[in-house]
Write a structure and sequence with these properties.
The complex is a heterodimer of chains A (about 300) and B (about 80). Chain A has about 300 residues and is an alpha/beta fold. Chain A has 11 helices and 14 strands. In chain A, the strands form 3 sheets. Chain A has a 10-stranded mixed sheet with strand order 5-4-6-7-1-8-14-13-11-12. In chain A, strands 2-3 form a two-stranded antiparallel sheet. Chain B has about 80 residues and is an all-alpha fold. Chain B is about 50% helix and about 0% strand. In chain B, helix 1 packs antiparallel against helix 2 and helix 1 packs across helix 3. The relative contact order of chain B is 0.20. At the A-B interface, helix 8 and helix 9 of A face helix 2 of B.
Chain lengths: ~300, ~80
């Protein structure tokens, strides 16, 4: 199929603690920790755009993989917080990196980066190396319309990877992805409007669909969860991650978690987690890794990869 | 044991607060079941009643009260 050459990430400087949000929202810091396990998250500055975040993550992964922007055959960006309806963040990235090729966005909150990754896995043999980015400025949304159920969750950031045809450090074995439009209204945002998130509905569906995606993918390859060395999941909510892990019989050590200090960065979270896992030496030769995400649509899926 | 007694027992095993005596009271508002507990409840209902609960029915309102859960279980058993 194709391979992931490496990951990169960028987080803005400003740390926003649970205590700071608790004071703003009129709740206790401990309530925030109990609800989602997020002690702090990062906020971009007022002049720092989603494109700025995406560009920094993109340049990091290019540097980490010793690639030139001119080597890219395409750019795909997952984001739910693009600053304009069209063209997408991907076009702005082309402009800043001075490259051509195929470029488009996948506007699916939380899962857009993952869908872009799956798409790139199939398109890389045709286009050549593809820069895949997940970038979000969620603070703009949750601070424009503060609500305790959503504001406590989200942070800003960007993550990126490069998907290349043929062999590479992280071989993509297979992926599955699906959308269930019956729940299209349960996690949505109209242009300029508040984030609409029906929390119980999201959790019920995310739990079931994430577990089923992972199980189906592993079944397809005659593998079980015990054959997987590391699970990289969309960092949505610590309680949800724990419940999915418990439901699949996965011990906590094999689930990478960074949302206590990163928050839920929506479409960026999977790649930020992957970049940090890679930097921490968690991607070891011969390891099997599952990446999985769930988000608006509801859209969801899982990818199986093997570290060379 | 009647369906409602079985359901009440299943909810009580998972409950984080007393299960309301009123079968029409919201389990969510009473704090008996939260967003994560309802997932465990769904799995136990499937096991206890030998039913499959499809994704389209995985909506909180179907599991909000003991009465609604019993109604739903009866429907699935008759399906």
């Amino acid at each position: 199929m194709a391979s992931i050459l490496g990951f990169g990430a960028h987080l803005p400087d400003r740390v926003v603690t649970a205590a700071e949000l608790a004071a703003q929202l009129g709740v206790e810091p401990d309530w925030i920790l109990e609800m989602c396990g997020i002690a702090e998250r990062r906020y971009a500055g007022p002049d720092e755009t989603v494109v700025d975040l995406a560009e920094r993550a993109a340049r990091r992964v290019l540097e980490a993989t010793h690639m030139q922007a001119a080597d890219l055959g395409g750019i795909m960006v997952g984001t739910g917080t693009a600053p304009r309806a069209f063209p997408g963040v991907s076009a702005s990235l082309q402009q800043r990196l001075g490259v051509g090729g195929m470029a488009f966005d996948i506007p699916l909150a939380s899962v857009g980066g993952f869908f872009a990754l799956c798409t790139a896995a199939d398109l890389a043999p045709r286009l050549g190396p593809i820069l895949v980015v997940g970038a979000e400025k969620m603070s703009e949304v949750v601070q424009a319309y503060p609500a305790k159920e959503t504001t406590i969750l989200f942070g800003d950031g960007a993550g990126a990877c490069i998907v290349s045809p043929g062999e590479g450090p992280l071989e993509i074995v297979d992926w599955i992805a699906e959308s269930d439009g019956a729940f299209a209204d349960d996690l949505q945002r109209e242009p300029g409007g508040p984030l609409v998130m029906h929390g119980r509905q999201v959790i019920m569906q995310a739990n079931r669909k994430l577990k089923r995606s992972i199980q189906m993918l592993l079944d397809r390859h005659q593998r079980s969860t015990s054959d997987v060395d590391l699970f990289l999941l969309h960092q949505a909510n610590l309680n949800l991650l724990n419940q999915v892990a418990k439901g699949l019989g996965i011990d906590e050590e094999r689930v990478f978690v960074n949302l206590q200090t990163r928050g839920n960065t929506s479409s960026a979270s999977l790649f930020i987690a992957a970049a940090e896992a890679q930097a921490a030496g968690r991607l070891r030769s011969g390891d099997h890794v599952v990446l999985a995400a769930f988000g608006s649509g509801f859209s969801f899926g899982a990818m199986l990869a093997r570290v060379r | 044991m009647s369906t409602i007694d079985t359901v009440r027992n299943l909810v009580a095993e998972l409950a984080q607060a007393p299960v309301p005596a009123d079968a029409d009271a919201s389990l969510f508002e009473a704090g008996a079941i939260d967003s994560f507990g309802v997932m465990d409840l769904v799995e136990r209902l499937e096991e206890a009643f030998g039913i499959q609960i499809p994704d389209k029915d995985m909506v909180p309102r179907k599991f909000e009260t003991l009465t609604k859960i019993v109604t739903y279980v009866d429907q699935r058993q008759g399906a």
